[in-house]
Queue: 3 jobs
Job 1
Amino acid sequence: MPRVQERSRARRQQVLDAALQVFSERGYSDTAIDEVARVSTTSKGGVYFHFPSKQALFLALLDEASGQLLERVEAAMRETPDPLARGEAALREALRVFGSHRLLARLLLVEAVGAGREFNAKLNELHAAFATLIAGCLDEAKAAGLLPECDTQIVAHAWYGAVNQVVVRWLLTGEPRRLEDAYPALRSLLFYGVFGPPRQEPR
Amino acid sequence: MPRVQERSRARRQQVLDAALQVFSERGYSDTAIDEVARVSTTSKGGVYFHFPSKQALFLALLDEASGQLLERVEAAMRETPDPLARGEAALREALRVFGSHRLLARLLLVEAVGAGREFNAKLNELHAAFATLIAGCLDEAKAAGLLPECDTQIVAHAWYGAVNQVVVRWLLTGEPRRLEDAYPALRSLLFYGVFGPPRQEPR
Amino acid sequence: MPRVQERSRARRQQVLDAALQVFSERGYSDTAIDEVARVSTTSKGGVYFHFPSKQALFLALLDEASGQLLERVEAAMRETPDPLARGEAALREALRVFGSHRLLARLLLVEAVGAGREFNAKLNELHAAFATLIAGCLDEAKAAGLLPECDTQIVAHAWYGAVNQVVVRWLLTGEPRRLEDAYPALRSLLFYGVFGPPRQEPR
Amino acid sequence: MPRVQERSRARRQQVLDAALQVFSERGYSDTAIDEVARVSTTSKGGVYFHFPSKQALFLALLDEASGQLLERVEAAMRETPDPLARGEAALREALRVFGSHRLLARLLLVEAVGAGREFNAKLNELHAAFATLIAGCLDEAKAAGLLPECDTQIVAHAWYGAVNQVVVRWLLTGEPRRLEDAYPALRSLLFYGVFGPPRQEPR
DNA sequence: AATGAATGAGTCTTCATTCAT
DNA sequence: GATGAATGAAGACTCATTCAT
């Protein structure tokens, strides 16, 4: 209601947007708060009004970014009842989101990684959240007798890592041109392994 | 023979060893050259005598570390003629090396990642080298009619990423207790996908 | 009006004043920004807030100093219509300014000289400005038929150098006690050469 | 006689030559002993064997350089009995030496100037030596009744400064193309002032 | 809310000098 | 005599953070 709060919130978002841009371009350590302030058309003090410290700003950004990512993926999964199809949907949506939000991808998969021990916990949360999502599908499929016994956690993390590395490669080398083009190969590997789908899989 | 050169080389190695320790504990940005100097029982100037800059030191370290890793994995592969068994060997050896060289693992898979754009190239080299190794196995196996057609590059990177993420998880959470315990699940996923080996595979 | 800007400007001037003192006492290279900060009762960061680098600070100082000097000399010349009398006035005023601003003299005539190639351009500007001033008098006097043909540029620079060296000697040896006492001899040399004024000096 | 001493002396000279080159290109502070060592095809230790410190090296260089300059000028003066002609000879020879030894000129007239208080004494020596040379001519001419009374010291220093500034201008701007071309104008100014030689110049 | 001047600790880097070999 | 590895003090510069206005 109060106009003032609205403005404040808008300002805050402005700062977060600038932070996404700058942090994902320069990395955590090489980013100066001054730069964030400039990009958000605010002042240094302005940034500090909304976030108590650089660390907190980065953390908030990670929160927002991973929240958005998870939300989108979860939404895609929610619409898919079949557990394995849900896994496919998650995979496809993840590639879609990363592919259309390069900055977010770079932030989460590159810049946040070596940024300092303070951020490992947050990153772990993200890893765990995704792993849990995937593990959920797997467990459900297993319960339905569709899958054999396996170490769900390991498989879930490996799955997640496979996707990430494809995204990282895209970020760093530009290949494949369209990230989503990696979907079929990824899907095939994760579902059927290197041997590919049995016999006459319709591709 | 020349005593002096030997000492110099030893000193250089001493510095690299210290650098591995400090960089992988604190990360690139949070590491002070002073700290590296102290750990190598040298002086700051001593470090700078052997390496022209912090960046160069880190780069040299990445070189050495990835060189060692690759060497070990390639050695394991060299002893295995069958292309698919070779892939397994690579996987197992990678887990073995990382599992017994935590610092090296942390350096390559965590600290080097967000350390700055200057290091992306070097990291890409490593990614590419591994992907090429794996892609070599896959292509050979395909040529032998053992595998169906697939996007080798994507699959190779995904494979590599799957392994890395399992290692990262181990680094950050300590699970699984022994990294090599992740081998069976990883191998199964990468070879047969989530559906696992066909029928009564002897596990 | 805006109080803040006023303070900022005052601070800036404070730093410049301190810089004049320290640079002209210790020279460019032997001056630490810390020292300038201390003398200006600011912090190192404060200095850097107003000047982007040591070099820029020194340059700004040279600008200010040579600006002041030129202004005073030009003012003295402006009041003197006769071209040759104007030359005398310039000479006398230069000695006056240097004589009462030892730091400025030392800065411009000693410390700035070997301070580095980056400052040569600025120094040249000063030389050129003075030479132009003097050359102006000479040319005007020539046009009025008071002087014979001569290489104005060389003469102007020589004139300027003659004055400077007398000032430098005063700076380094303390002689003559009062710089302005050098005026008659200098004036005589520059106007009439070593032979001095003809018999009953026309003047 | 002893070969060893000869070599040592040659080495020493090698270092001095390198020092002249490097110091006059980079200035005192921006010159690293390493650079001098490299240019003299010696090692850092080698330089320190012949000169106890950077300061001592620079001082020795100043000594050698001003010695050479003085020697040449004194030689030119020795051959000229008439006091005023001797002054002319000194002037001409100074321009000749500087004109054909740019590095020496730059060293003495630019780089040594703001190099630090430690070198002021040495520079003063040079100034005093030249002033004394010139003052000698003047005094002798005065004794012969050729010149009127004047403050010899001031005139001598001014004379010296006039020459120097012309040389400095040449060093910094490249004008006049050939330094010796400045001779006539300089000579005229110093002998007859801005009014130039009386009527039909005796020359 | 916002600004931007100010602080000062922290870092990389340079380099004169020393000295074992 | 000469080398070059090693030292450590010194210094420019950065930047997260604070705070008066």
Job 2
Amino acid sequence: MVNQQFSFAVHILTVLAVTRRVVDSRTLARSVNTNPVVVRRLLLVLRAAGLIETQAGKNGGAQLARDPRRITLLQIYDAVDPRPVLALNERKAARHCFVSCNIKTVMALIADGAEAAVRKHLRGITLHRLQRKIRRS
Amino acid sequence: MVNQQFSFAVHILTVLAVTRRVVDSRTLARSVNTNPVVVRRLLLVLRAAGLIETQAGKNGGAQLARDPRRITLLQIYDAVDPRPVLALNERKAARHCFVSCNIKTVMALIADGAEAAVRKHLRGITLHRLQRKIRRS
DNA sequence: TTAAGTGTAATAAACACAATTACAGTTTTC
DNA sequence: GAAAACTGTAATTGTGTTTATTACACTTAA
């Protein structure tokens, strides 16, 4: 299955940015249309990345830890640490084949370039900008 | 991306570019370290994209259909048509939630941007350049 | 003290991919 | 024209990844 954690995380953080209050995992889960436990697991990694704060107990939940102007999509991307955009063939090479023995290094460079391109794109978008776009729609 | 078809395809085409001969699926499969049927299925899509020609029967196999200088990684990427680099949440929105109702459009724009960035990167690399890199390594 | 949350483990279900088997069809070569 | 060596392709199985679900200990506010 395709990993949707980045999508989930952006969605959750946008809700928190818009509401500016503590929101519980059940409410967030309904917005994303997934299970509260899935949300809570995601909240843990977002908290580890310093993007949100959580509170246990009654009236607990999550809220943004900083100004949405200072949260980029790249920070969210790094927090959830998704799989690389281009998957490499990790099996061992056929020793007798020249291409097989050397393609891995070259492909890794290409994948790194693709990754860098995506990261550059995401670095240019803040949560605040996203929030404004949503409001205008 | 989750699947390795792009990696497999680049590998296969590099072998064909280096050998400049008809190569059968069993040989290609050994180089990639996978199953000949997996290779043959990939060869079909590469042929459909006009990148290779195949020949059935004895001494059959695949060969490049054009100069490696005129094959870009983007063409290979498009041929195998991998899943998007950023996975969107495709479930239906929670009607009562403003963010939920509008995030999809915005996320789609972000994903499109990421896709475009990767495509731009891949468009700049030819099979010929790859081949030369491999030779030098 | 109770209600309403989080944190977290364990397990099941869903899904995507790749591997494998099997065999019909094609083409070369002898 | 028969055999050998391929491709094309369907069907099925195996494997790993991701999400969903259940359960419950722990925390906090009212």
Job 3
Amino acid sequence: MKIATWNVNSLNVRLPQVLAWLAAQPPDAPVDVLALQELKLSDDKFPAAAFTAAGYHAQWFGQKTYNGVALISRSPATDVVKNIPGFEDDMARVITATVDGVRVIGAYFPNGQAPDSDKFVYKMRWLTALREWVRAELVTHPNLVLLGDYNITFDDLDVWDPVGLAGTIHCTDEERTHLRALVDLGLHDSFRLFEQPPKSYSWWDYRMLGFQKNRGMRIDHILVSEALRPRVTACTVDRAPRKNPQPSDHAPVVVTLDASV
DNA sequence: ATGCCTCAGCTCCTGAGA
């Protein structure tokens, strides 16, 4: 079973690339669940028919211009929840559903802009609310995956210039403390369960030849619960779509689980 | 230097992303 996350930075623009990427998977190892972020379209504009034609179900939670998340799945998704219950938010950032016995929480974490900004304050509040939502979901769903665009790096390994970017957005102690608190709920960073190529990132700035120079950050993560950890056999960043014409600034991250015991 | 790209929208500039 393969579960993936991809911030597409406008599904309107990236839909052909998403469909091509799904179609390019090996027939014996398709992507079973794909969490998308930054749809940047309202619910009525979601291209549901295109995913149906490709053999996928879809659940979506859109918003005009900004944000918007979706779960694309080969099996139907059930028990869908949009955003964080009990947390008032006018942004569409979270979608949760159960697919093939796995509780999947797809999330587009706030950017935060700068540590001294109002948006950073919102990011901290949002992170606290998300943690309580994940904590509650784990009680009833031990097989759980939390994945998406976290907009936070774990440590210097995730940053192309850890000295120059120390303390800047995505790299602050406050953000990393929140990220570790999520892990401390009983989750594991799939990517670091395996040896990885040095300087592995999931996002590169569009400017200054960021991708070509591999000046990036690893900010897209797939955390798996303790119960799922024994099933994880691989986690990789697929850099290929970042080489497409008109790419998203993010690359997909994919985790592979073996069949349930 | 606060821009360098990219995208959406009250579209020929601005805000936001990260």
